Amino acid sequence: MSMFKSITIGQFIPGNSVLHRLDPRAKFIALIIFIVSIFAVQSFLGYLALAGILFALLLTSELPLPYFFRGLRPVYFITLFTLLVHFFMTRGGEVLLQIGPLSIESQGVYLGFFMVFRIIFLVVSTSLLTLTTSPIALTDGLEYLMKPLTKIGVPSHEIAMMMTIALRFIPTLMEESEKIMKAQMARGADFTSGSVFKRAKNLVPLLVPLFVSAFRRADDLAVAMEARCYRGGEGRTRLRELVAAPRDYAAIATSTVILVGLILLGI
């Protein structure tokens, strides 16, 4: 399994689950509350509670669980690097291991796993949002939430459109990277052996055509939008207007209650 195929953020899988049917505005607000909860929790018991909630949401989405776990593969290096930095750089508590001038102390282990849990929860929850929400719904939901900012001159529609396009093109660019890498390897390119500097230099034949392809796609998208008379958010109509249902208010209320409960319980 290629690392590029493990990218889940930005992809959308159609479905008819409860999460698929939720209003994108409710999902955005619930995601923000969940992210606040991730950083508000100060104990492993709190993270265990969040893990249970997230696991229940994954089951509710009716999407295959291995798909979400594959989505964590690209962040393995980040989590490992985070662990090592905290292990050897954070001081405090009992010395667990001494390696010459370096030592691993209990406080470093504690904070290291804290940060790893935060990264995992952030990636999985964000993937859950994009996997259960179409790009059009993402744009509309984000635009509606940013609409009050238009009163101070913020182009909410344009910002929402740019963010959605950028998010949507992540898996597309990863797919393109994989195709280019396989083509270069078929011509004798080596991306795995040698020193770090040599491998970085070998990436040049991959990055140049990738950037060319990205600019070409951007140009094609701009031409397609102009051909459809796209002129931004002013005067734009929608085929389906967003209408909040009781389940959307229930999702926001439940997320808020969970956050307040975690804070009050001090976990």
From TrEMBL:
It is found in: Cell membrane. The chain crosses the membrane at residues 28-59, 71-89, 109-131, 249-266. It is a multi-pass membrane protein. CDD domains: EcfT (cd16914). The keyword Methyltransferase does not apply. Keywords: Cell membrane, Membrane, Transmembrane, Transmembrane helix, Transport. GO terms for molecular function: transmembrane transporter activity. GO terms for cellular component: plasma membrane. The keyword Cell membrane applies. Belongs to the energy-coupling factor EcfT family. Forms a stable energy-coupling factor (ECF) transporter complex composed of 2 membrane-embedded substrate-binding proteins (S component), 2 ATP-binding proteins (A component) and 2 transmembrane proteins (T component). Transmembrane (T) component of an energy-coupling factor (ECF) ABC-transporter complex. Unlike classic ABC transporters this ECF transporter provides the energy necessary to transport a number of different substrates. This is Energy-coupling factor transporter transmembrane protein EcfT. The lineage of its organism: Bacteria, Bacillati, Bacillota, Dethiobacteria, Dethiobacterales. The gene is ecfT.
